[in-house]
Amino acid sequence: MRQGKRLKTAYTGIDREQLYALDVAVKMIRERAVAKFDETIEIAMNLNVDPRKADQMVRGVVSLPHGTGKTVRVAVFARGDKAAEAQAAGADIVGAEDLMERVQAGQLDFDRCIATPDMMGLVGRLGKILGPRGLMPNPRLGTVTPNVAEAVQAVKGGQVEFRAEKAGIVHAGVGKASFSEEALLANVRAFVDAITRAKPSGAKGTYIKKVSLASTMGPGLKVETASIAAAG
After folding, report:
1. pLDDT band (50, 70, 90) for residue 166
2. Contact at 8 Å (CB) between 218 and 42?
3. The model's pTM
4. What Cα–Cα distance (Å) separates residue 107 from each residue in 15, 56, 74, 75, 130?
């Protein structure tokens, strides 16, 4: 009941149908993020694509200039010197067969998974576990690479993975309510720019149909797409 009252209060002064300029939307969302924890600011984009078609899939990664504010746990499949490099770079879990057994036992206590190319024979056996959870290492996303230290640092430093869902919706966390408005604006623009650059060959008509922002416990606001690029 209290949560409902809080959300009702948060919606005061908001027109759900109005399109807000990005800077106005960020300001309003930060002001209404009053939960007892540091709320995540999330972006949702409705794209004019059908990801079930190969030439309309939208997928990739983007490094947000101010990070996500989230602590990301990283698992790395590597051996020898590469395993040592991953550990030195800050990986939370590093291993080979032992890590495979851990995953098979259901211990998926990590948010991202990286592998060196020589480990993909091993990792491939875990496809049915890692795949549905979006954790399968992928060369296109930079998570199958010999440069494990660089990959770990990128993920830890605010790299965000994105993928269009079946309705053509892409969403991600682009920072925390405690971030400055300037940092959030820069992160949103970097994310939207990455989605724009990832436009697939099969996309027809208006590519970005709708953009909205919200905080974890707060209201959602529709954002005027022209205002995102305006000062980008």
Report:
1. confident
2. no
3. 0.82
4. 44, 34, 13, 11, 11
